[in-house]
Write a structure and sequence with these properties.
269 residues; 2 domains; Killer Toxin P4, Chain A; CRR_secretory_protein; repeat; binds 2-acetamido-2-deoxy-beta-D-glucopyranose; alpha+beta; single chain
């Protein structure tokens, strides 16, 4: 039947430990954060084409999606399930944000599942991003490789220079250092970091604070994670530089920086 396409056992163990830690931390949850699981963006994988109603592809896709809904433990914040055989490949990947494990991940998955089905009807593949998770269907194996085809950038409409926030023109340097340091932290899984390939932190910026977050999907290697974030920080400079906040999302990694907190439990950096 369906199998969990394997990821490192080490990561799984660490993720299970993370649930406990996250639950403990959530008891101090920050009330000023916007906890809405808003829709962000989607993309239908048009080149993979559509499946016929009643086809084997549809059957497997539906079955995998239901298996994840009903029996899969989303405490890890990550699931990849697939079927290969009879000349077809089907996979479903869910990656929740580092602070959204267990029930929150389940609820994001449910929202994303109906959202992706509605937005990409009958497409064999597609991807949708919500605040708390991403969901991908694919008729091609997308595991273990950095995907650079589905990245996109969003930024705060305000320039950082408005209202003299950036009196010293150092904002770009400060957030890039913060995100680089967070990336180093995210990939140090053995250093008591209980949420693999995820880190959120903040650092002072004059009388302000910059908040940052980085995350890679759990099928990406440590090296791949670093490359993905580094690549996107350079690739999307035009979108991000000079803005008060911005984010790049993709299939393999995402990051964000803002002058306000947007995830709970950020570390002082
Ligand atoms: C929370 O975020 C959503 C989506 O970005 C927005 O529509 C909503 O107004 C926000 N709510 C608050 C209280 O900021
Ligand atoms: C999927 O894989 C097939 C066969 O390897 C390839 O021909 C096709 O271009 C791939 N499609 C996408 C969207 O990557
Ligand atoms: C922000 O700065 C850019 C470049 O200097 C300028 O083109 C743009 O109009 C500014 N946007 C706002 C909202 O002030
Ligand atoms: C600007 O530079 C001054 C002097 O180095 C420093 O005290 C101040 O905190 C800086 N402001 C910001 C927003 O970084
Ligand atoms: C962040 O990285 C910079 C450059 O490597 C380093 O100088 C700084 O100490 C780091 N800061 C933190 C808080 O890790």
């Amino acid at each position: 039947m369906y199998s969990l396409l394997s990821i490192s056992k080490h990561l799984i163990l660490i993720s299970i430990l993370a649930v406990v830690a996250v639950q403990l931390l959530l008891t101090h949850s920050v009330s000023c954060l916007n906890m809405t699981n808003a829709y962000i963006h989607h993309k239908c994988y048009i080149t993979q084409g559509k499946y016929e109603p009643g086809s084997e592809y549809e059957e497997h896709l539906t079955s995998i999606a239901q298996t994840i809904s009903s029996t899969k433990d989303l405490s890890k914040g990550y699931v990849m399930m697939g079927f290969t055989g009879d000349g077809i490949f089907v996979s479903v990947i869910v990656q929740c944000r580092g602070d959204s494990h267990g029930p929150k991940c389940h609820s994001c998955y449910a929202t994303a599942l109906s959202g992706l089905r509605r937005r990409c009807p009958k497409y064999k593949g597609g991807i949708v991003w919500y605040e708390h998770c991403l969901l991908e269907f694919s008729g091609n194996d997308t595991q273990y490789q950095n995907d650079y085809d589905n990245n996109f950038c969003m930024h705060n409409p305000k320039n950082v220079s408005d209202d003299q926030v950036d009196v010293n023109n150092s904002f770009n340097r400060k957030w890039t250092i913060l995100l680089s340091n967070l990336t180093r932290k995210a990939i140090k899984i053995e250093n008591n970091d209980l949420t693999p390939l995820y880190a959120a932190g903040e650092r002072n910026f004059g009388k302000y604070k910059i908040y940052g977050m980085v995350q890679c999907t759990l099928d990406i290697t440590i090296k791949g994670c670093q490359e993905c974030i580094g690549h996107n920080m350079v690739e999307f400079q035009d979108c991000l530089y000079g803005k008060r906040g911005g984010r790049v999302l993709g299939r393999s990694c995402n990051f964000r920086f803002e002058l306000y907190p947007f995830v709970p439990n950020s570390l002082k950096m």
